[in-house]
Amino acid sequence: MVNPVIKIENLAFRYPKADSFCLDIQELHADAGDRIFIYGHSGSGKSTLLGLLGGVLSPERGTISLLGHELATMSSSDRDRFRADHIGFIFQQFNLIPYLSVTDNVLLSCRFSARRSDRAIVSGNTLQGEVARLLDHLDIAMELRHRPVTKLSVGQQQRVAAARALIGSPEIVIADEPTSALDAERQKAFLDLLSRECIAADTTLLFVSHDRRLASGFSREIDLSSLNRAQASQEAA
Amino acid sequence: MKYLISLAIRSAWNRKLTLGLTLMSIALSIALFIGVERVRQDAEDSFAQSVSGTDLVVGARTSPVQLMLYAVFHIGDATNNIHWKTFLDIAANPSVAWTIPVSMGDSHHGFPVVGTSTDYFAHFHYSDSQPLVFSSGKPFAGLFDAVIGAEVAEHLGYHLGDKIILSHGMGGIGLAEHADKPFTITGILARTGTPVDRTVHVSLEAIEAIHLDWQGGAKIPGFSIPAQYVTKFDLTPKEVTAILVGLKNRAAVFKMQRYVNEYQTEPLLAVLPGVALDQLWQVVGIAERALLAVSGMVVVVGLCGLVAVILASLNERRRELAILRSVGARPLDVFLLLSAEGLFITLSGTLTGLVMLTAITATFAPMIQSHYGLMIAPTFISYDELGLLGIVIGVSLLASLAPGYSAYKLSLSDGLTPRI
Q1: Which residues from A are below 8 Å from B325, CB to CB?
Q2: pLDDT for A128-140, tens place per residue?
């Protein structure tokens, strides 16, 4: 039997010194190639969920298994390595390191993960070749690639960030409101590009947003506030 | 690790203005620190070499430091003089190669006047066995000839052939003058950086001659011997203040010292100049060490500035650190990234400071030597300074850990989503 890509069971988390749980999830399950839209307004525990999946936060109880590996059994530096090898992140904005070139920003993922570096070389013959291929796919024109990243538009920056998340074909891509700074038309274009790349690589995509209108292209939609029992009980109270 | 270093350098380059200024402040503080240390070292060396080649300094019994003070630095007064007969005895000792008699008590515009013999110009050495050199003129030959040091000439604007009048006693204004017996400058010595520069040299006979009509520190009233008649008197000195002694064989120095110290006719003291100069430096050197301490504090201030700048930049870099965390950087990597920055700035600042200092020394060394007689060695760095720099770099390493640790804590609490 193939391990599920993401398996969360009976998960609860609270921040140090907090009285109540911030996140309490009975179950969350995702298979390879799933593209899941997680709907959640601000304060619904999105950031916490991302931190837990990324292995920078540790749950108080319950388990998180990624690709059959239970995060709690790993040391923190193993979790850092696991994150580097298997997860690509795209954040809301300011995703790029200002003093690195477009290419170096994309390659950042490969610098901390030999596995992703190897896989990128297999896919594009060379690291540079794979960067060029991804940037081609994500519509970053040649002349933009040598500009300082701070001179790119927000939409261009987000697409460079997507290239960084996708390079080396990680099994999981987690996108945290990557389109919130884009206008409606560009949101759609960005989502299409991202979905296409994830389908091509059979990548599991977790897309977190407060904007429900974006949910149409995804294979599944989850409402975080109903998933998160801590939040539901607070609201009921 | 290699990538982290390249990342640290590129990140630093991105903030080159602030960090460049910080680097410069560290470079300047290092240049100051090492510069002060170097001047201090050279001052101590040239102080220790105020007199060289002299094996013993002999005077009436007193403390060794005081004997050095008046015999070599011409500061203060001798408690007692030595009889001429004693001088002849010591000079005639078989182990003695040469002697320089020193007779003091008069001054000229605050500069000490030393009565001596022409042996002075032959045997007095300073620094690394450097002989005295005349920048113009020659040793005194006539009775009322004088040879002046470089600073006397420069300060008072004297040239060869100028007439000068000596004052009775040490000190400044209001002294009785030997106005009836003026001296002619026949020689000016090149700068040495030693007390010689501040000295007026005349013959022992001249000292005797100007005091013929004096008694007990004052002119005898109604009694005056004109300059042209003094040669009719016996001008053999009756006393000298101190004697610089050179031995034929240095190995005999302790034997000779004991001979002098146990001299029967009058109580004498013989000191080894090197030992006494070291003792004297213990006193004088406090100021130099205070200066070094102050410049050390400047380095500390520079390092504090560095830490403050890096800590201040941390807040703007939280997003950057979160991105690095998301691609797999460990908190330890973040720690190293920030610590490396501080260390990197200190190292380049130190190097820049040393280059600056070397350039400054190379440019100004000739000027400093001719003005202050201080020989500043044009070395890039000496072994002793390496130790000091080692301490500076060690401290900066510790200081750099502070922003590293803050970043470490921050990246743990921020995780992937900095709360700015």
Answers
A1: 56, 80
A2: 899 999 998 888 8
Note which residues in 55-84 of chain A have CB less than 8 A from chain B: 56-57, 76-77, 80-81, 83-84
State what percent of residues in chain A have pLDDT above 90.
21
Q: What phi, psi does A152 have (nearest 5°)?
A: -85, 155
A-chain CB neighbours of B11 within 8 Å are 99
- 300-329 in chain B: CB under 8 A from chain A: 319-320, 322-329
Residues 6+ apart with CB under 8 A from B105: B77, B113, B168, B169, B170, B207, B241
Q: Looking at beta carbons, which residues of chain A come within 8 Å of B10?
A: 99-100
Domain A32-47+76-223 falls in which CATH fold?
Rossmann fold (3.40.50)
CB A33 within 8 A of CB A202: yes
Q: Which residues of chain B have pLDDT under 50?
A: none
pLDDT in tens, B87-98: 999 999 999 999
Residue with tokens 């820049």: B352
ipTM value > 0.95: no
Tokens of A181: 């700074």
Dist. CA B417–CA A23, nearest whole Å: 16
Residues B15-55 have pLDDT tens digits of: 889 999 999 999 999 999 988 888 888 778 777 778 888 89
B310 exposure class (CB count in 10 Å sphere: 0-12, 13-18, 19+): buried
Domain ranges in chain A are: 32-47+76-223
DSSP-derived secondary structure for B351-375: HHHHHHHHHHHHHHHHHHHHHH---
Q: Shortest Cα distance from B417 to chain A (angstroms)?
A: 7
